[in-house]
Specification:
By secondary structure, the protein is of the alpha/beta class. It has helices spanning 15-29, 62-73, 80-104, 121-134, 158-167, 182-192, 219-223, 244-254, 274-285, 314-319, 335-342, 356-360, 377-388, 390-407, 410-425, and strands at residues 2-10, 33-41, 51-53, 108-112, 138-142, 175-179, 196-198, 230-234, 259-263, 292-294, 323-326, 347-350, 368-370. Helix 1 (15-29) packs across helix 15 (410-425), helix 2 (62-73) packs across helix 3 (80-104) and helix 3 (80-104) packs across helix 4 (121-134).
Protein backbone atom coordinates (compact mmCIF):
# COMPACT_ATOMS: atom_id res chain seq x y z
CA UNK A 1 0.00 0.00 0.00
CA UNK A 2 0.95 3.66 -0.28
CA UNK A 3 1.06 5.01 3.26
CA UNK A 4 1.06 8.76 3.92
CA UNK A 5 2.41 10.15 7.18
CA UNK A 6 1.47 13.63 8.44
CA UNK A 7 3.80 15.10 11.08
CA UNK A 8 4.87 18.52 12.27
CA UNK A 9 8.56 17.62 12.48
CA UNK A 10 10.48 14.53 11.39
CA UNK A 11 14.11 13.77 12.20
CA UNK A 12 14.19 15.38 15.64
CA UNK A 13 14.93 13.77 19.00
CA UNK A 14 11.44 14.16 20.47
CA UNK A 15 9.50 10.99 21.19
CA UNK A 16 6.96 11.52 18.41
CA UNK A 17 9.63 11.95 15.73
CA UNK A 18 11.75 9.04 16.98
CA UNK A 19 8.83 6.63 17.14
CA UNK A 20 7.57 7.76 13.74
CA UNK A 21 10.94 6.81 12.23
CA UNK A 22 10.51 3.30 13.64
CA UNK A 23 7.03 3.06 12.12
CA UNK A 24 8.48 4.14 8.78
CA UNK A 25 11.22 1.50 9.00
CA UNK A 26 8.77 -1.29 9.80
CA UNK A 27 6.19 -0.20 7.21
CA UNK A 28 8.90 -0.31 4.55
CA UNK A 29 10.03 -3.74 5.73
CA UNK A 30 6.40 -4.85 5.33
CA UNK A 31 6.58 -3.79 1.68
CA UNK A 32 4.59 -0.56 1.90
CA UNK A 33 5.70 2.64 0.16
CA UNK A 34 5.84 5.52 2.64
CA UNK A 35 5.26 9.19 1.86
CA UNK A 36 5.76 11.99 4.39
CA UNK A 37 4.26 15.46 4.55
CA UNK A 38 5.83 17.59 7.30
CA UNK A 39 6.42 21.14 8.40
CA UNK A 40 10.09 20.55 9.17
CA UNK A 41 12.76 18.02 8.20
CA UNK A 42 15.57 17.94 10.73
CA UNK A 43 18.71 15.91 10.00
CA UNK A 44 16.79 14.11 7.28
CA UNK A 45 17.84 12.82 3.86
CA UNK A 46 15.17 14.70 1.90
CA UNK A 47 13.76 12.72 -1.03
CA UNK A 48 11.39 14.93 -3.09
CA UNK A 49 9.49 11.91 -4.41
CA UNK A 50 8.53 10.72 -0.94
CA UNK A 51 8.97 13.86 1.19
CA UNK A 52 6.76 16.95 0.94
CA UNK A 53 7.43 20.16 2.87
CA UNK A 54 4.55 22.38 4.00
CA UNK A 55 6.14 25.19 6.00
CA UNK A 56 2.82 26.24 7.55
CA UNK A 57 2.76 22.87 9.37
CA UNK A 58 5.96 23.56 11.30
CA UNK A 59 5.57 24.14 15.04
CA UNK A 60 8.06 26.98 14.59
CA UNK A 61 6.28 28.66 11.70
CA UNK A 62 4.95 32.21 12.22
CA UNK A 63 1.46 30.83 11.63
CA UNK A 64 1.66 28.25 14.42
CA UNK A 65 3.61 30.48 16.80
CA UNK A 66 1.16 33.36 16.48
CA UNK A 67 -1.84 31.06 16.83
CA UNK A 68 -0.51 29.42 20.00
CA UNK A 69 0.48 32.78 21.49
CA UNK A 70 -2.91 34.39 20.95
CA UNK A 71 -4.91 31.26 21.85
CA UNK A 72 -3.16 30.30 25.08
CA UNK A 73 -0.37 32.60 26.25
CA UNK A 74 -1.14 36.24 25.39
CA UNK A 75 -4.77 36.35 24.26
CA UNK A 76 -6.34 39.55 22.96
CA UNK A 77 -9.73 40.69 24.20
CA UNK A 78 -11.05 40.57 20.62
CA UNK A 79 -10.89 37.04 19.29
CA UNK A 80 -12.07 37.75 15.74
CA UNK A 81 -8.59 38.13 14.24
CA UNK A 82 -7.43 34.87 15.86
CA UNK A 83 -10.45 32.93 14.56
CA UNK A 84 -9.88 34.35 11.07
CA UNK A 85 -6.23 33.30 11.31
CA UNK A 86 -7.06 29.75 12.42
CA UNK A 87 -9.71 29.37 9.73
CA UNK A 88 -7.42 30.72 6.97
CA UNK A 89 -4.41 28.53 7.73
CA UNK A 90 -6.49 25.47 8.57
CA UNK A 91 -7.91 25.60 5.07
CA UNK A 92 -4.52 26.29 3.47
CA UNK A 93 -3.07 23.23 5.22
CA UNK A 94 -6.16 21.14 4.39
CA UNK A 95 -5.89 21.99 0.69
CA UNK A 96 -2.21 21.05 0.64
CA UNK A 97 -2.92 17.73 2.35
CA UNK A 98 -5.72 16.96 -0.12
CA UNK A 99 -3.44 17.78 -3.07
CA UNK A 100 -0.69 15.59 -1.56
CA UNK A 101 -3.05 12.62 -1.09
CA UNK A 102 -4.19 12.86 -4.70
CA UNK A 103 -0.71 13.47 -6.15
CA UNK A 104 0.91 10.60 -4.24
CA UNK A 105 -2.13 8.31 -4.56
CA UNK A 106 -2.17 7.65 -0.83
CA UNK A 107 -4.18 4.63 0.38
CA UNK A 108 -3.95 5.14 4.16
CA UNK A 109 -3.01 8.24 6.18
CA UNK A 110 -1.24 8.21 9.54
CA UNK A 111 -1.45 11.41 11.60
CA UNK A 112 1.45 11.54 14.05
CA UNK A 113 0.13 13.19 17.23
CA UNK A 114 -0.99 16.19 15.17
CA UNK A 115 -4.60 15.05 15.64
CA UNK A 116 -4.18 14.36 19.36
CA UNK A 117 -2.34 17.31 20.94
CA UNK A 118 -3.31 20.93 20.07
CA UNK A 119 0.32 22.05 19.81
CA UNK A 120 -0.52 23.34 16.31
CA UNK A 121 -4.19 24.31 16.10
CA UNK A 122 -4.15 25.10 12.39
CA UNK A 123 -2.50 21.80 11.45
CA UNK A 124 -4.90 19.77 13.61
CA UNK A 125 -7.94 21.46 12.11
CA UNK A 126 -6.45 21.28 8.63
CA UNK A 127 -6.01 17.53 8.98
CA UNK A 128 -9.59 17.16 10.22
CA UNK A 129 -10.97 19.14 7.27
CA UNK A 130 -8.91 17.17 4.75
CA UNK A 131 -9.65 13.74 6.23
CA UNK A 132 -13.37 14.45 6.38
CA UNK A 133 -13.46 15.61 2.75
CA UNK A 134 -11.36 12.71 1.51
CA UNK A 135 -12.99 9.95 3.57
CA UNK A 136 -9.61 8.20 3.43
CA UNK A 137 -8.72 5.52 6.03
CA UNK A 138 -6.79 7.38 8.74
CA UNK A 139 -4.80 6.13 11.72
CA UNK A 140 -4.17 8.72 14.41
CA UNK A 141 -1.01 7.81 16.33
CA UNK A 142 -1.85 9.50 19.64
CA UNK A 143 1.13 10.03 21.94
CA UNK A 144 -0.48 12.46 24.40
CA UNK A 145 -3.59 14.55 24.85
CA UNK A 146 -4.52 18.08 25.93
CA UNK A 147 -6.05 16.97 29.25
CA UNK A 148 -2.73 15.36 30.22
CA UNK A 149 -0.96 18.73 30.10
CA UNK A 150 -2.68 20.51 32.99
CA UNK A 151 -3.87 23.97 31.92
CA UNK A 152 -1.42 24.29 28.99
CA UNK A 153 -4.19 23.98 26.40
CA UNK A 154 -6.96 25.78 28.26
CA UNK A 155 -7.74 29.16 26.71
CA UNK A 156 -9.59 32.11 28.25
CA UNK A 157 -11.59 32.11 24.99
CA UNK A 158 -14.50 29.66 24.95
CA UNK A 159 -14.30 29.56 21.14
CA UNK A 160 -10.74 28.18 21.30
CA UNK A 161 -11.68 25.64 23.94
CA UNK A 162 -14.52 24.51 21.68
CA UNK A 163 -12.08 24.05 18.76
CA UNK A 164 -9.80 21.98 21.02
CA UNK A 165 -12.69 19.87 22.31
CA UNK A 166 -14.12 19.21 18.84
CA UNK A 167 -10.84 18.62 17.00
CA UNK A 168 -8.45 16.91 19.42
CA UNK A 169 -8.41 13.98 19.27
CA UNK A 170 -9.76 13.43 15.76
CA UNK A 171 -13.01 11.48 15.94
CA UNK A 172 -14.19 10.98 12.35
CA UNK A 173 -15.89 7.74 11.22
CA UNK A 174 -13.01 7.03 8.80
CA UNK A 175 -10.36 7.31 11.54
CA UNK A 176 -9.02 4.89 14.16
CA UNK A 177 -6.70 5.41 17.11
CA UNK A 178 -3.32 3.92 17.94
CA UNK A 179 -2.28 4.86 21.49
CA UNK A 180 0.94 4.16 23.37
CA UNK A 181 -0.47 2.90 26.67
CA UNK A 182 -3.53 1.22 28.18
CA UNK A 183 -4.43 4.31 30.22
CA UNK A 184 -4.96 6.27 26.99
CA UNK A 185 -6.97 3.39 25.55
CA UNK A 186 -9.30 3.38 28.56
CA UNK A 187 -9.58 7.19 28.58
CA UNK A 188 -10.62 7.36 24.92
CA UNK A 189 -13.29 4.76 25.54
CA UNK A 190 -14.61 6.51 28.64
CA UNK A 191 -14.55 10.06 27.21
CA UNK A 192 -15.58 9.47 23.61
CA UNK A 193 -16.60 5.82 23.29
CA UNK A 194 -13.72 5.44 20.82
CA UNK A 195 -11.85 2.15 20.45
CA UNK A 196 -8.06 2.12 20.17
CA UNK A 197 -5.21 -0.34 19.72
CA UNK A 198 -2.27 -0.03 22.12
CA UNK A 199 1.01 0.12 20.19
CA UNK A 200 3.94 0.28 22.62
CA UNK A 201 7.11 2.15 21.83
CA UNK A 202 9.62 -0.32 20.43
CA UNK A 203 13.26 -0.88 19.55
CA UNK A 204 14.96 -3.06 16.95
CA UNK A 205 16.18 -5.98 19.08
CA UNK A 206 18.16 -7.37 16.14
CA UNK A 207 20.55 -4.43 16.04
CA UNK A 208 23.77 -3.94 17.97
CA UNK A 209 23.20 -1.45 20.76
CA UNK A 210 25.00 -0.56 23.96
CA UNK A 211 27.99 -2.76 23.21
CA UNK A 212 31.54 -1.76 24.24
CA UNK A 213 33.89 -1.13 21.33
CA UNK A 214 37.13 0.61 20.45
CA UNK A 215 35.31 3.92 19.92
CA UNK A 216 33.37 4.16 23.17
CA UNK A 217 35.93 2.58 25.49
CA UNK A 218 37.29 6.03 26.35
CA UNK A 219 33.97 7.72 27.11
CA UNK A 220 34.34 7.66 30.90
CA UNK A 221 37.95 8.78 30.65
CA UNK A 222 36.89 11.70 28.45
CA UNK A 223 34.41 12.72 31.15
CA UNK A 224 37.19 12.73 33.71
CA UNK A 225 36.09 9.54 35.45
CA UNK A 226 38.99 7.43 36.66
CA UNK A 227 39.54 3.83 35.54
CA UNK A 228 37.85 1.20 37.71
CA UNK A 229 34.85 3.36 38.55
CA UNK A 230 31.27 2.18 38.10
CA UNK A 231 28.95 4.61 36.35
CA UNK A 232 25.21 4.94 36.76
CA UNK A 233 23.72 6.74 33.76
CA UNK A 234 20.70 9.05 33.71
CA UNK A 235 19.97 9.02 29.98
CA UNK A 236 17.16 11.58 29.83
CA UNK A 237 16.55 15.26 29.34
CA UNK A 238 16.86 17.48 32.40
CA UNK A 239 13.23 18.19 33.22
CA UNK A 240 11.52 17.95 36.60
CA UNK A 241 9.38 14.88 35.89
CA UNK A 242 12.53 12.80 35.29
CA UNK A 243 13.19 12.69 39.05
CA UNK A 244 16.94 13.23 38.69
CA UNK A 245 17.20 14.41 42.29
CA UNK A 246 16.52 10.81 43.38
CA UNK A 247 19.51 9.57 41.37
CA UNK A 248 21.68 12.22 43.05
CA UNK A 249 20.37 11.16 46.46
CA UNK A 250 21.17 7.53 45.56
CA UNK A 251 24.78 8.41 44.78
CA UNK A 252 24.97 10.13 48.16
CA UNK A 253 23.44 7.13 49.96
CA UNK A 254 25.83 4.63 48.35
CA UNK A 255 28.77 6.28 50.13
CA UNK A 256 31.33 5.11 47.54
CA UNK A 257 33.59 7.48 45.61
CA UNK A 258 34.01 4.80 42.93
CA UNK A 259 30.34 4.99 41.92
CA UNK A 260 29.55 7.99 39.69
CA UNK A 261 26.38 9.42 38.18
CA UNK A 262 26.48 10.57 34.55
CA UNK A 263 23.60 12.77 33.33
CA UNK A 264 23.57 12.81 29.53
CA UNK A 265 20.77 15.30 28.77
CA UNK A 266 20.90 19.05 28.63
CA UNK A 267 18.51 21.53 30.22
CA UNK A 268 17.19 23.25 27.08
CA UNK A 269 13.68 22.06 27.91
CA UNK A 270 13.92 23.25 31.53
CA UNK A 271 12.23 26.65 31.39
CA UNK A 272 14.40 29.22 33.11
CA UNK A 273 16.79 26.44 34.18
CA UNK A 274 14.95 26.36 37.50
CA UNK A 275 15.07 22.59 37.96
CA UNK A 276 18.67 22.40 36.77
CA UNK A 277 19.69 24.97 39.37
CA UNK A 278 17.86 23.00 42.05
CA UNK A 279 19.89 19.92 41.07
CA UNK A 280 23.14 21.90 41.24
CA UNK A 281 22.19 23.14 44.70
CA UNK A 282 21.39 19.59 45.84
CA UNK A 283 24.72 18.31 44.51
CA UNK A 284 26.58 20.92 46.53
CA UNK A 285 24.40 20.41 49.59
CA UNK A 286 25.14 16.67 49.59
CA UNK A 287 28.81 17.29 48.73
CA UNK A 288 28.77 14.94 45.73
CA UNK A 289 30.04 17.32 43.04
CA UNK A 290 33.00 14.97 42.48
CA UNK A 291 30.57 12.08 41.83
CA UNK A 292 28.06 13.70 39.42
CA UNK A 293 28.97 14.45 35.81
CA UNK A 294 26.91 16.40 33.27
CA UNK A 295 27.76 15.03 29.85
CA UNK A 296 25.56 16.70 27.21
CA UNK A 297 28.63 18.40 25.73
CA UNK A 298 30.10 14.97 24.99
CA UNK A 299 27.05 12.81 24.20
CA UNK A 300 24.54 13.62 21.48
CA UNK A 301 20.94 12.60 22.02
CA UNK A 302 20.32 10.62 18.87
CA UNK A 303 21.96 7.83 16.96
CA UNK A 304 23.70 4.57 17.58
CA UNK A 305 27.26 5.51 16.64
CA UNK A 306 29.57 8.41 17.35
CA UNK A 307 28.89 11.57 15.39
CA UNK A 308 32.39 11.77 13.99
CA UNK A 309 33.10 15.04 15.76
CA UNK A 310 34.43 13.54 18.96
CA UNK A 311 31.00 13.06 20.49
CA UNK A 312 29.43 9.82 21.64
CA UNK A 313 26.01 8.35 20.92
CA UNK A 314 23.28 7.04 23.20
CA UNK A 315 24.49 3.54 22.36
CA UNK A 316 27.98 4.51 23.54
CA UNK A 317 26.50 5.84 26.78
CA UNK A 318 24.64 2.60 27.50
CA UNK A 319 27.81 0.63 26.70
CA UNK A 320 29.49 2.32 29.67
CA UNK A 321 26.59 2.10 32.12
CA UNK A 322 26.72 -0.28 35.06
CA UNK A 323 23.02 0.51 35.54
CA UNK A 324 20.55 3.21 34.54
CA UNK A 325 18.53 5.46 36.82
CA UNK A 326 15.02 6.24 35.62
CA UNK A 327 13.06 7.77 38.47
CA UNK A 328 10.44 9.56 36.37
CA UNK A 329 7.14 10.52 37.95
CA UNK A 330 5.19 10.62 34.68
CA UNK A 331 5.76 9.27 31.16
CA UNK A 332 3.57 8.59 28.15
CA UNK A 333 5.52 5.37 27.74
CA UNK A 334 9.24 5.49 28.53
CA UNK A 335 11.68 5.02 25.66
CA UNK A 336 14.67 5.19 27.98
CA UNK A 337 13.50 2.04 29.75
CA UNK A 338 13.27 0.05 26.53
CA UNK A 339 16.66 1.39 25.41
CA UNK A 340 18.25 0.14 28.64
CA UNK A 341 16.63 -3.25 28.17
CA UNK A 342 17.98 -3.40 24.61
CA UNK A 343 21.45 -2.52 25.92
CA UNK A 344 21.18 -5.30 28.55
CA UNK A 345 21.63 -2.70 31.29
CA UNK A 346 19.79 -3.06 34.62
CA UNK A 347 17.35 -0.27 35.45
CA UNK A 348 16.48 1.41 38.74
CA UNK A 349 13.01 2.85 38.17
CA UNK A 350 10.15 4.66 39.85
CA UNK A 351 6.66 3.24 39.29
CA UNK A 352 5.82 6.24 37.12
CA UNK A 353 2.27 7.21 36.23
CA UNK A 354 0.26 6.11 34.41
CA UNK A 355 2.26 3.55 32.47
CA UNK A 356 5.03 1.66 34.19
CA UNK A 357 3.34 -1.10 36.10
CA UNK A 358 0.28 -1.68 33.82
CA UNK A 359 2.21 -1.61 30.53
CA UNK A 360 5.80 -2.54 31.40
CA UNK A 361 6.57 -3.67 34.94
CA UNK A 362 3.76 -6.22 35.13
CA UNK A 363 5.30 -8.13 32.22
CA UNK A 364 7.97 -9.44 34.58
CA UNK A 365 11.05 -7.26 34.08
CA UNK A 366 13.65 -7.57 36.83
CA UNK A 367 14.13 -4.05 38.16
CA UNK A 368 14.52 -2.24 41.44
CA UNK A 369 11.28 -0.28 41.55
CA UNK A 370 10.50 2.60 43.89
CA UNK A 371 7.01 3.73 44.87
CA UNK A 372 6.52 7.51 44.86
CA UNK A 373 10.31 7.83 44.53
CA UNK A 374 10.83 6.71 48.13
CA UNK A 375 14.47 5.64 48.38
CA UNK A 376 14.28 3.19 51.29
CA UNK A 377 17.28 1.42 52.84
CA UNK A 378 16.00 -1.88 51.41
CA UNK A 379 15.86 -0.48 47.87
CA UNK A 380 19.32 1.09 48.18
CA UNK A 381 20.75 -2.27 49.24
CA UNK A 382 19.08 -4.01 46.28
CA UNK A 383 20.63 -1.46 43.94
CA UNK A 384 23.99 -1.80 45.64
CA UNK A 385 24.02 -5.56 45.02
CA UNK A 386 23.29 -5.09 41.30
CA UNK A 387 26.02 -2.45 41.00
CA UNK A 388 28.73 -4.59 42.61
CA UNK A 389 27.68 -8.14 41.64
CA UNK A 390 28.82 -8.41 38.02
CA UNK A 391 27.30 -11.87 37.54
CA UNK A 392 23.88 -10.75 38.82
CA UNK A 393 24.15 -7.60 36.70
CA UNK A 394 24.72 -9.63 33.53
CA UNK A 395 21.94 -12.12 34.33
CA UNK A 396 19.41 -9.32 34.82
CA UNK A 397 20.50 -7.70 31.56
CA UNK A 398 20.09 -10.93 29.58
CA UNK A 399 16.75 -11.77 31.19
CA UNK A 400 15.27 -8.32 30.53
CA UNK A 401 16.58 -8.34 26.95
CA UNK A 402 14.72 -11.58 26.17
CA UNK A 403 11.53 -10.20 27.71
CA UNK A 404 11.92 -6.89 25.88
CA UNK A 405 12.30 -8.69 22.56
CA UNK A 406 9.04 -10.51 23.24
CA UNK A 407 7.04 -7.38 24.08
CA UNK A 408 8.73 -4.29 22.55
CA UNK A 409 10.43 -5.36 19.33
CA UNK A 410 9.96 -4.42 15.68
CA UNK A 411 8.22 -7.77 15.22
CA UNK A 412 5.57 -6.68 17.75
CA UNK A 413 5.19 -3.36 15.91
CA UNK A 414 4.69 -5.18 12.60
CA UNK A 415 1.86 -7.24 14.12
CA UNK A 416 0.23 -4.09 15.47
CA UNK A 417 0.55 -2.20 12.18
CA UNK A 418 -1.00 -5.09 10.25
CA UNK A 419 -3.87 -5.07 12.72
CA UNK A 420 -4.32 -1.29 12.46
CA UNK A 421 -4.28 -1.23 8.67
CA UNK A 422 -6.85 -4.04 8.52
CA UNK A 423 -9.15 -2.30 11.01
CA UNK A 424 -8.94 1.19 9.49
CA UNK A 425 -9.47 0.04 5.89
CA UNK A 426 -12.64 -1.79 6.92
CA UNK A 427 -14.28 1.04 8.85
CA UNK A 428 -17.86 1.79 7.71
CA UNK A 429 -17.01 5.52 7.42
CA UNK A 430 -14.30 4.99 4.80
CA UNK A 431 -15.02 6.17 1.27
CA UNK A 432 -13.73 4.32 -1.77
CA UNK A 433 -10.80 6.36 -3.09
CA UNK A 434 -10.73 7.43 -6.71
CA UNK A 435 -7.19 8.77 -6.88
Amino acid sequence: MRIGIIIGRIGGVDGVALETEKWIDVLRRMGHEVFIIAGQYENWDFDPEHNTLVVEMSFFSPESYWGQKKAFFYPDANIDELLEHINLYSNIIADKIIDWVHEKKIDVVISENASALPAHLEMGRGIAIAIEKLGIPTITHDHDFAWERGDRYISPHKEINKIVEETFPLRLPNSFHAVINTHAQKTLKERFNRDAIVVPNVMDFNMKFGEPDDYNKNLLRDLGIEAGSKALFQITRIVRRKGIEVAIELIHRLQDDNVKLVITGDYKDDEGSKYYNELINLIHQLKVSHLVFFASYLIHNKGFTGSGDGKYSLSDAYANATACTYFSTYEGFGNAFVEAVLAKTPVFVNNYEPVFWPDIGSKGFKVVMLENNELTDEKVEQMREIIYNDKLNREIGEYNFALGKKHFSYEVLEEKLNQLIHVVTHLPGVKKQDL
